[in-house]
Design a protein that fits this description.
It contains 5 helices and 7 strands; from the N terminus they run βαααβββαβαββ. By secondary structure, it is of the alpha+beta class. The protein has a 7-stranded mixed beta sheet with strand order 1-2-3-4-5-7-6, with helices on both faces. Strand 6 and strand 7 form a beta hairpin.
Length: about 170
């Protein structure tokens, strides 16, 4: 069974290994990364930064794990904004070996529940590259609606690229 839990510094080694093994698979969907990102030390820094933002209430950095607590990927609620907005963005990735098994859909379902339940958010936004059909299917299966296109939205794989925008509104709040 797939579940999500808060990332910890103890995950650095396993994440570094998983990212290294999946670097070519993830490269078309991620920002260009220096080689240090794929090391245990690089992941330890990334985790510490994410947990510092979490402590301030600005994100929710999770790992996606299987029943044996082996890491399959990451999912994060980013840019949590309170006040009148009550919104965030979600980003995620899963290892190539975990693709096609419902892992991302299960993780997204859990994160939506936390965002709209425990965090009492009103809206979640997600963005995908136009050719990332698998990610679009995950979003559609979990209730997200396409709301538009953002030209030159993010610098991914070394160049500014257009993104399709999706959102999910909390009807209960």
């Amino acid at each position: 069974m797939t579940t999500c839990r808060l990332v910890t510094p103890d995950d650095a080694s396993e994440l570094a290994q998983l990212l290294w093994l999946n670097r070519e698979f993830l490269a078309p969907w991620e920002p260009a990364r220096g080689s240090d990102y794929f090391t245990e030390a690089g992941q330890r820094i990334a985790i510490q930064d994410a947990l510092a933002e979490h402590k301030l209430g600005r994100n929710l950095p999770l790992v996606i794990v299987d029943e044996a607590d082996a890491i399959l990927g990451r999912i994060t609620l980013n840019g949590i904004v309170r006040g009148a907005f009550q919104s965030c963005s979600v980003g995620y990735w899963v290892s190539q070996a975990a693709c096609g098994r419902g892992v991302a859909t299960a993780a997204m379902t859990q994160v939506i529940s936390v965002a709209f339940g425990e965090l009492s958010l009103h809206r979640i936004q997600a963005e995908t590259l136009p050719h990332n059909v698998a990610s679009q299917k995950v979003l559609e299966r979990t209730g997200f609606e396409r709301i538009g296109m953002a030209p030159a939205y993010l610098k991914i794989a070394g160049r500014w690229q257009d993104f399709i925008l999706f959102q999910l509104i909390n009807d209960a709040g």
